[in-house]
Amino acid sequence: MSTENSGNIKKEWMEKGFIDEPAQGMSDLKAEIRRMCKEKDAVILAHYYTVGEIQEVADFIGDSLALARKAADTDAKIIVMCGVHFMAETCKILSPEKTVLTPDLNAGCSLADSCTADDLRKFKAEHPGYQVVSYVNTTAAVKALTDVVVTSGNAKKVVDSFPKDAKLIFGPDYNLGNYINSVTGREMVLWNGGCHVHERFSVDEIVKLKKEHPDAVVMAHLECKSPVLAIADVKGSTATMLQYAQQHPEQKEFIVATEAGILHEMQRTCKDQVFIAVPPEVSEGGVGCSCNECEYMKMNTLLKVYNTLKHEWPTVDVDPEIREDALKPIKRMLELS
Where are the beta strands (DSSP E) in the chain? Predict the structure, then answer.
């Protein structure tokens, strides 16, 4: 969610009288959340990058668009999207009749924020005759200006569906667009945006880990920079990396270059394998940390999920006209992929 639209959510929550409201007398917050889900006919969606205890209480765990599609297929009246704001918007686009809640409206996305609707509108005007291919990590307003949406898992297939001489703009993730250009031989015009988490991975850190674990398979998300992707054994979406580990039980060690939250699901489903998170580059002050995390994803907490369900707030809505236009490129993607 862009900072210009986020507002002072904490102040508003306090004015409503339930910021950080404790679950008084409750020994098991997870059990109470599940009880309310049943009572309120709600489903909880957790992105792979949320903390483990959020994933443990969720009905569905996965990547953003897959989660929105799963929720749309249910009869639930309420969707609680534990992720970031654009993901909740996508849920509302696919399920306009449902109430969509998000535990923290301030949970934005550096990648989505790198491309505003106004800026994309101007960029399109500067490139007449071009069609826009947008990564799913965008706001509803940007999707509404898009010809087709893609995920990191189907981007190549969707782009390949266009004629070779098609004039294409790809955004907002430069690294993903650059990778798709390299494997398709195209020259799409790339928006210069990026994920602040995946931008922090470096070849040096991976080389260090590879020396310590020479038999480990290196896996990297397509939002990583090209030098990182060049040394990765497995390149793809978060779901692709998880699936690869599940399908190769003989491989005992993996070095993983994506947001560290995915390690929870990897370890849960692959108990006999070891997953090593690639740390970010060491800061200028010389102090690094052991993993690379998205602070926005980590805004989702059990207490916030509890409060969100209890008060059915904050809700996420999408203007009906924007929703209608944003749904078209998603439908086109589904048809092509």
Answer: 42-47, 60-62, 78-82, 99-101, 131-135, 148-150, 168-171, 189-190, 217-221, 234-236, 253-257, 274-277
CB atoms within 10 A of CB 99: 19
CA distances for 113 relative to 144, 198, 213, angstroms: 15, 15, 37
Tokens of 9: 């959510």
Nearest-angstrom CA–CA distance, 94 and 324? 10
Q: Which of 196, 161, 197 is nearest to 180 (CA)?
A: 161
Rounded CA-CA distance 184/78 in Å is 41
Handedness of CA 237, 239, 242, 245 (dihedral sign): negative
Question: What CA–CA distance (Å, rounded) separates 130 from 301?
Answer: 42
Determine the Cα–Cα distance for residues 31 and 36; give it in Å rounded to an integer. Answer: 9
Encoded tokens for 141: 């307003």
Average pLDDT for runs of 10 along the chain of length 337: 42 49 64 97 98 97 96 98 98 98 97 98 98 98 98 97 97 98 97 96 96 98 98 97 98 97 97 96 51 93 96 97 98 92
| Beta-strand runs (E) in 136-264 | 148-150, 168-171, 189-190, 217-221, 234-236, 253-257
| Angle separating helix axes 29-40 and 302-311, nearest 10 degrees | 30
Q: Helix 262-269 crosses helix 238-247 at what angle (to 10 degrees)?
A: 20
Amino acid making up residue 233: D
Cα-based distances in Å from 29 to 195, 306, 312: 32, 8, 17
Q: Parallel, antiparallel, or unpaired: how do β-strands 99-101 and 131-135 relate?
A: unpaired
